[in-house]
Automatic annotation (TrEMBL):
Magnesium in keyword set: no
PROSITE patterns: ABC_TRANSPORTER_1, ABC_TRANSPORTER_2
Gene3D superfamilies assigned: 2.40.50.100, Nucleic acid-binding proteins, P-loop containing nucleotide triphosphate hydrolases
The ABC transporter domain, residue ranges: 13-245
Organism of origin: Streptomyces pimonensis
The keyword tRNA-binding appears for this protein: no
Stored Pfam families: ABC_tran, TOBE_2
Keyword annotations from UniProtKB, A to Z: ATP-binding, Nucleotide-binding, Transport
Domain of life: Bacteria
Name of the protein in its database record: ABC transporter ATP-binding protein
GO molecular-function term, one example from the UniProt record: ATP binding
InterPro entries: AAA+_ATPase, ABC_transporter-like_ATP-bd, ABC_transporter-like_CS, ABC_transpr_MalK/UgpC-like, Mo/tungstate-bd_C_term_dom, NA-bd_OB-fold, P-loop_NTPase, Transp-assoc_OB_typ2
Amino acid sequence: MTGTKPAVTFERLSMRGVTRQYAKAGAPALAELDLDLERGEFVALLGPSGCGKSTALACLAGLQPLTSGSIWLDDTRIDTLPTEKRGFGMVFQNYALFPHMSVQRNVEFGLSMRGVPKAQRQEGALRALRLVQLHEHAAKLPSQLSGGQQQRVAIARALAIEPEIVLMDEPLSNLDAALRIEMRTEIKRLYQERGLTVLYVTHDQEEALSLATRLVVLRKGVLEQTGTPQEVYTNPVSAYVAGFMGYRNLFPAQVEATGHGDAVGVRAHGTVIHGSHRSGTTLKPGAGVTVAIRPEDFVVGSGATGNSVKAVAEVVEYHGRELSVRARTGDDTVLHLKTDQPVAAGAVLDLGVVPERVLVYAESSASGTGAGEAPHG
């Protein structure tokens, strides 16, 4: 590692029509995916298990061949190159450390595979360990470190080769909640201080929002939406994306009437709910739609305004400053809400939510929402 930041040798990584088919029959894991990664970006691939995000990373890394399409680093095609020639650093969820090697030797491994002389690779490994604040543990074995420390060793190993791009495949999924938060901060620090370019796979929307400069949501191997975290969070293009962006309440309704702009009234729970139409198609009265509402957007009790819904609290969980409540309406629809108001199980709740916080999607956009999609790899 020759400086505080990696040398700039590329401007854009491009995937063009990348398709990965595991079997002749059935849907592909990736279907003609077009994706660009600009130098200095932190892009998070987001989606449920089986949506194709890990497959995309494996294709980039050279761990899986393409069925069709191509991958380019500026004007150089790289999908025909072996893994070690692509210049990527890789971090996996299982750390993939050698248990019989010291921390330092683990970090040296990539440099050794590239034929770097011993003195230089030792120096490079120690420099990478200082970046992740583990240089004092260089002589230890991985088993003598905590899970968070082992993941930092894996990150140091990826950085030691001075990669063009760092690929991370759910690197925090095996850590407990407190360590995940700590490691998120550590990864963000390294990204900012080193000027890294990162492609990061996760199914955790909070993790993606906190780390990434751009989100890419995949659905059954197809790009569903891309944009800044704020864009995707505030304006999900489909009920599927809304489900990943915290709209836990997704339920069917029928169009009652349309208004000016994207205003729409729908009938659900025996009443009319007013919201904003987000599907980009013309809705007609009687059409089936999906309504999406965040739990935190419900207001309980006398402060409730806008749309009014009655529900009975079934389960109340204490989360410190707020309560997480599962409630059920008269037509047997389950609602999830968060509130700082006192609520007891069995209580009848008057709920309100302003129309601006109610998103309405064409019925077809609701199919396959959530994590229950058929796996593709």
